[in-house]
Structure formats: structure tokens, C-alpha cells
Design brief:
The chain is of the alpha+beta class. Strands 1-3-2 form a 3-stranded mixed beta sheet.
């Protein structure tokens, strides 16, 4: 864990690329931006994390296109 890390509830793909946030692969971010496809970033370690994400309950960050 990085104690200086900041959690974003929502951020644009452009901001992720501009700020070079290393949460997601840069290539994946660019591909999502080009295809105007949003992303949901969440923990796989959280109980029912995938099931919650599939139901739209994201305990993480929404990256908008």
C-alpha cells in the first residue's frame, strides 16, 4: 500500500493518461479512450467484488470515457 495514494471515485480516461496514473495499463487506457469505453477499477480481493461489479456496485473507481 502506498500511504500517499489518492482514491478517485470518478476520473476521466484523459486524466488517467495525463497524470500517468499507474493503476491501469496505459495501453488499456488508450484503447478504452479510443473506443469511448468506460472502465470500472475495483479490488479482486474484496469478497464478492466481481459479483458486485457485475451488478453495478463498484467499490472502486469509475473511469469515464
Amino acid at each position: 500500500m502506498n500511504p500517499a495514494a489518492r482514491k478517485y471515485d470518478t476520473i476521466s480516461i484523459e486524466e488517467v493518461i495525463q497524470k500517468q496514473l499507474a493503476v491501469v495499463d496505459l495501453t488499456a487506457s488508450i484503447m478504452c479512450m479510443e473506443h469511448r469505453m468506460p472502465m470500472a477499477v475495483f479490488s479482486l480481493n474484496e469478497p464478492d467484488g466481481i459479483a458486485n461489479a457485475m451488478q453495478g456496485r463498484i467499490n472502486g473507481t469509475i473511469v469515464t470515457a
